[in-house]
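Appendix B. Worked example

We walk through a single record from start to finish. Start with the input: the chain for Integral membrane protein, Micromonospora sp. CCTCC AA 2012012, length 119.
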Amino acid sequence: MIEQSQRRVPVPVAAASVILLVAAALSASMMFGSGPSIATELIGVLLLLALAYGLWRGSGRARFWTTVLATASVVYGVVAITKADASGLLQILGAAVIVGLLLVPASSRRWFHDLPAEY
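Next comes the structure step. The output line below is what the pipeline stores for this chain.
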């Protein structure tokens, strides 16, 4: 058996990180369109990038804040469902998937709690 020197990122955590990176890219592409201000959008993009990096590194704080912000996004999307368009429904779905990927699979829980992997 070959022993690995580094732990491998579990697939659910990698998927959640990719979803955050896609959200950051979409937000950055719409930054120059209509919106509150470029500075606010830039802060949002940087926050998404920092959370994706933290998840990739196994930071428990990144998992906590990603879960809190994604849950708040789902709640906000459901409350504001009256103006449901494709991007709003995509936001709700993406945030719900992130929460599920970070909290449900055992590999995700082990990744953030630094428990040894079961073989």
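Two observations about the output. The two ends are 12 Å apart (CA to CA). Helices lie at 11-29, 38-57, 60-79, 86-103, 106-113.
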